[in-house]
Each structure stands twice: as C-alpha cells, then as structure tokens.
Amino acid sequence: MRSMTDESKNKDGALSTGGSTEEIVGSIQSIITDRSLAPGDRIGAERELAQSLGVSRWTIRRALEQLESQGQILRTHGRSGGIFVAPKKLIRTTPLGGLPVYLRAQGIDSGTTVLGTRAGPPDDEVAKQLGLESDAWVFHIERLRLAGGLPLVLETTDLPCELFPGLLDQPLGSLYEILDSKYDIRPEVTVETITATTADREVAGLLQVSVGSALIFVTRTAELGSGRTFEFSRELWRADRTAITVRSDGKPAYTTIDA
C-alpha cells in the first residue's frame, strides 16, 4: 500500500518525490543560486544530485540534458568529472597569436598539459604541409589545452627541427610566445580549415566528454613573411565550449566546400 504522501523508493534507493523534469531543472538552478556557484564551479555528481533531490538517475539525467542544451551546465567524464556551472564559452577568433592570448583577453584562465614530445622524421601529411624533404626532421608536440581549469582543446603541432634548435627544452605552454622571444619568429599568414567531427574513446577521455560528442576539427598552417611554412597543427575543440567568429575585412577570401 502506498503512503499518504504518495512517495516511494526508486531503483537507486533515493526517495522519489515524483517531480517533473521542469521541477528538477528548477531545483538544480536553485542549488546554483543558493550556493552562489560561479561559472566553472562544481555542482556535484549525477548520483549525488539524484539522491539529494530524491529522484531517479533517469529523471536527473533528463533535467541535466535540458540544462546542458541551454548552456547552463557542463557535464564532464572521468575521475575528476562531474556537473559544473557552465564556464564562459570561448569566442574563438582567428588571430595570428596563440590560445593563451585570446583566453586572457576574455578573462579566462588558461593551462597546458604536455602529453608527449618527440623529434623524428615527419609522416607524409606533415612533410607535405611543411614542404619538407624526406630526410628532414620535425618536432612533434601533443598538448591538452585547458580553459577555466577544464579541457578545451587537444592539439598536435609539428615544426621543422632546423628552425627551432632546442625547442623541446623550453616550456611549451605557449609556442607562439616562445617562437617570438627565443627564435624571433612570428606568423605572418595563417590558414585554417575548420570541419566537424566526433570524439572517439581516446579523445573523449582526454577532453572529458562522451564518446561521439561533437568536436570542432581545426587544421592550421603558419607561414613566415618569406612564404615558408613553419607550423602545421591539428586541433580538436570541444564544440560545447567554443564559438567561432570569422571577420571579413573586405579583402578577397576563399572558401572550399567538399561536397
């Protein structure tokens, strides 16, 4: 027999209040307000919220999906994952500078985790993009870029060894700042190609998103004033944290669409 309060235990052991998705959404919004949580602050884990609000995991998941689609929260996966108040979305312009520059301009803390480096022969694609001979070597650098303490970009960069002796001995937080200060090299022209893709299992783990999540795939080459290409980069951006702004200055531009 059901109690007079019409409450029951759900399959997770939480006391179910039978609240609608909209009511649970409102409850989560109240948690953010009552705790004075700021963008990037952790709200909790899915199980914790389900138990504290007395609803099933299925119900809380629907409410979280709605809040995430509205850009109010951010869910991450992995050991340090959880539910966070949505951080400020990065407005990604295409300047001739590195990521830390326009993160700082938007008041967003930046960070870098170097995942791996090596020096060796380039693969065919890298050699083609950098215009290198078969016997040339490149520095290959893999980094995870953070914004507001959370993963934003998975980045792979290749640069000719002959132009940057000792590069791997340098701190690799901002390559462009190092190239400028130590090697007196600055990009005069950058060319970027932007496409859509999804996260496989390895990438999803690093970016703390679900497998199959939408990503923005950016390939970039940077050239010296002489026309020589000195950088080839491939970047996977979290689509839920990034907006891309393209500005035209009235000069001729070219867009290639692969049908």
Automatic annotation (TrEMBL):
Residues 18-88 form the HTH gntR-type domain. It comes from the Bacteria. GO terms for molecular function: DNA binding; DNA-binding transcription factor activity. InterPro entries: Bact_HTH_transcr_reg, Chorismate_lyase_/UTRA_dom_sf, DeoR_HTH, Tscrpt_reg_HTH_GntR, UTRA, WH-like_DNA-bd_sf, WH_DNA-bd_sf. Keywords: DNA-binding, Transcription, Transcription regulation. The keyword Transcription applies. The keyword DNA-binding applies. Residues 1-12 have a biased composition (Basic and acidic residues). Residues 1-21 are annotated as: Disordered. PANTHER family: MANNOSYL-D-GLYCERATE TRANSPORT/METABOLISM SYSTEM REPRESSOR MNGR-RELATED (PTHR44846), MANNOSYL-D-GLYCERATE TRANSPORT_METABOLISM SYSTEM REPRESSOR MNGR-RELATED (PTHR44846:SF1). This is GntR family transcriptional regulator. It comes from Rhodococcus sp. T104.
